[in-house]
Amino acid sequence: MLYTIGLQYLPVTTYTLICASQLGFNAVFSYFLNRQKFTPYIVNSLVLLTISSVLLVFQTDPGDSNKTTKNKYVIGFICTLAASAGYALMLSLTQLAFHKVIKKETLRAVIDMTIYQSVVATGIIVIGLFASGEWRTLNREMEEYKLGKVSYVMNLLWTAISWQAFSVGCVGLIFKVSSLFSNVISILGLPVAPVLAVIFLHDKLTGLKAVAMLLAMWGFVSYMYQHYLDDLKMKEKRRSSEEGVSEVALVTDRG
Predict the structure, then answer these.
(1) What is the domain range of residue 29?
(2) Using CA atoms, how far apart are residues 139 and 142, in angstroms rounded to an integer?
(3) Per-residue pLDDT averaged across 23-43, rounded?
(4) Which terminus of the chain is more exposed, N or C, with fewer CB under 10 A?
(5) How many structural domains comprise the chain?
């Protein structure tokens, strides 16, 4: 819901770049909840992604001033930032639940976790929908949809399907690797989204947004490089272990 408010009040490029801050939040939560180790590259990623998001609150794009007021822009910024923090916390808690509560390495564990999260989220949204009275306007919303009723239904249908596929993949990555890695993969399309918004939605890419996007890309690459180094270290340990086992087997055979 917070993401929806942010998207309502912010341009797509601004909204997308602020969402990059969830990686920074995830790094902090992973450190305290999942014992994630900080390295210079991860810290660099955290700082760059935070700066890229903070820069956007100072942007004064004249093209956006006609669509939203400064107060609404700040509300959208805060809601999107809060949503990013909440999503990052959910990922870290999911990893903690896998390690401390479920303790099963099966596909069913991944599906169960996805279902539990979806049921809770659906329940909260339904309560909010009826409590606010917005359920009365659903029919009018479908009637006034510019592309027609069929497009409205198909949009909802494929959004739900794609989101469930994303959820299964996201939880699966948390299960197999870590919440931080899952978050990195989930924002893989971050540098592409602002460009697509400019091309298809005619959104304006200001100089400040371009700088923020470059910083976000830099932060993403920094984390991926750290993952690359960790992978090399893991392969080196595995190779050393295999060589040690081979030497022990050779000595045993000689004896």
Answers:
(1) 2-238
(2) 5
(3) 83
(4) C
(5) 1
